[in-house]
Every structure is written in C-alpha cells, then in structure tokens.
Amino acid sequence: MAAMKLEAEIDNDMRPFLVQYMDGSIMRLATSPFVPPSEVPGKTGVATRDVVIDPSTGVSARLFLSVDALRWDKKKKLPLIVYYHGGGFCSGSAFSKLFHRYAESLCARTGAVVVSVDYRLAPEYPIPAAYDDAWAALRWAASLSDPWLSEYADPERMFLAGESAGGNIVHNMAVRAATAPDGQDMSIEGIVLLQPFFWGSERQPSEVDRDDRPLFVPEWVDTLWPFLTAGTAGNDDPRLNPPPELVMALPCRRALITVASKDLVRDRGCQYSTWLRLGKHCHEEFFESKGEDHAFHLNPWAKASAGKLMDRVVDFVSRTKLYPITYDVKPRRIIAPKIRLQRISPNFITSRDLSMSMRALV
Length: 362
Fold this sequence. Notes:
Layout: H1 2-8, E1 10-14, E2 18-21, E3 26-28, E4 46-54, E5 59-66, H2 67-72, E6 78-84, H3 97-110, E7 113-118, H4 129-142, H5 147-152, E8 153-163, H6 165-179, E9 188-194, H7 205-208, H8 218-228, H9 244-248, E10 254-260, H10 266-279, E11 283-289, H11 303-318, H12 338-342, H13 351-361
Helix pairs in contact: 4-6
C-alpha cells in the first residue's frame, strides 16, 4: 500500500536517475558509494585530495596525481585534465566510486594531473548552475591555484574531458573559453567528448532505430532537458543542440569525439564530429566503440572495449605531434539542418563569427 501511495505521489519520474515527489522531495536512484581521498598513493600509484573551489556555491573538486608520472621526468611538468563526470546533470559525484575510479585510471594511464569537478545537480540547482560551476572550476584549474597544480601541471597542455552530460559541459566550456572576456587567457590544448549528450527536436536515425535496444528511449529523453532547466528551455536550446555554425567556428586546437554504436545519441556525436571537421579550425579525431552503449566505459565488466577507448584517450593526451585523421562516420546516418548549413562557408569562419553566433543565441 505504501509503495502504491508513493507511486501516486510522483511528480517527475526521471528514472533511472531519480524520482521527484509532489512534496518536492527527491529520491536518487543511480547512486555510487563515496570514496574518501588519500594522499598516500594506492595500488595505481595515484594520490588524491579534495579542494573547495568556491565556498559560496559549494563547487569543489578531487585532484589526482600520479606518483609514477613524477618519476618519469622530474623536470618536465605534466598535462592537466579537467574532467566533468556524466549523470544527466542530475546524478553523480566526483567523490563517488564510479567516477573516482575512472578519473584515477585516467590519471594513472595518461600521467596527467586530473581535476575531477563536483558541480551542483538539477533539479535542486537547475541549469545553468552546472555550467557556472564548471566554468568556475576551469578558471580555478587554469590559474594553478592549488600547490599540486602550480608545482606539477603544465597550463599549456590543458585538456577538457567528460562523458555524456560531462561531454556536453566540455563543449559549452570550450565555447565560453573562446568567447568570454575571462577566457582569453586560457590555453586549452584539446577537448575529449566521450559519448556526449546532445539532443534536439528533430529525430536522428539512431534515435529512431530501436533494433539495438538502447538504454534510453527518445520519448523519455525529450522530457529531460525541460526538467533540468526547470521548464525554462526546450530541446533546441543551443547548449543542448549546438547549431552547426557554432561548432564549425569553434577554434579548439584538437578534439577527440567518441561514440558507442548502440547509443541512442550516437548520431549526435557523429554530427558534432562532422561539423568540427567541416569548420577546419580544429584537428578533429573520431572513434566509435562497436557493440557498446552509452557510458559503457564506466562499467567494470566492459574491460576490452573500455580498454581500447582508454588507449585512444591516452594517445590523444600524450601525443606531441598531429597524426593523420581517420574517420568512421557514415554520412547516411547524419541529418543536418541543411538550410542553416547553406548560409555559411566553413572556409571563412573566424573567431568573430563565433562570437556573433553566440550573441545571436543569447
């Protein structure tokens, strides 16, 4: 009877992430145990510590430092990775076992200093709180405000990385860094979008094809962004559905876009990758994990596929020269807004065009 009553009192059913009841209370379902930090390196040779970036908002981060990497070359500073976890903007934490484990692996494999950002979640803190926290953390990391960062991190080799919602955050931080006055002093070497969460009102083939039985269904995803923004934005919000001209004008140095073949949002990632390539302002790379679904790399049982993906990320971060780009994107699977694309020539896109595009979207 109690269970039936609870079901009747549900206001927003956002399973598998959470359930919000009519009295405003929230029950989060996708949880992972808290892992305490330790400045004593564990089996992976990685030490961790937590920092509060902004006491007024509570935005904080967990820092990861590979002791083994320090032994490789004591005089050479390490790459810096600012990592944003996934979880649909309403779930997850940098301090949870799920994302701690991935950030720790990222640190151990790349040798980079990793800053895993713990941002505020919706619906308690609707979008744009997550973006504001992500930006505050990025500014903090770039300023090398922490002793670990000032002593060991190379600000000229800073990467942004994230999966799902975190991949979406990476895109929006890259746009802001290219256009905001307080982003001009940043040096972002590359961005890594792992199965990024993009969406829109126009269906893509991967969102219609149910043969692969994806983790999520499009009808449910349609309700997510309005929920996350407290009803202030729809699914064609440019933060969720970036216009092609905005992506094509993005002046990032390097980008690695990865998708999973069974993922509902697979074609959104393919589309984003294609637009970056057309813009010719970014050395773009694309990688598809065959037979896998959304955020599979966080699953400890997906060792083979997750290992291949991690190898690609490690290669991308560690590389000192640009390799030839290979593409594995099927054009027939991508639906682009042709009218908007016809109005812009990728050969003549500048940072000024990017700023103008952003102003037009505000």
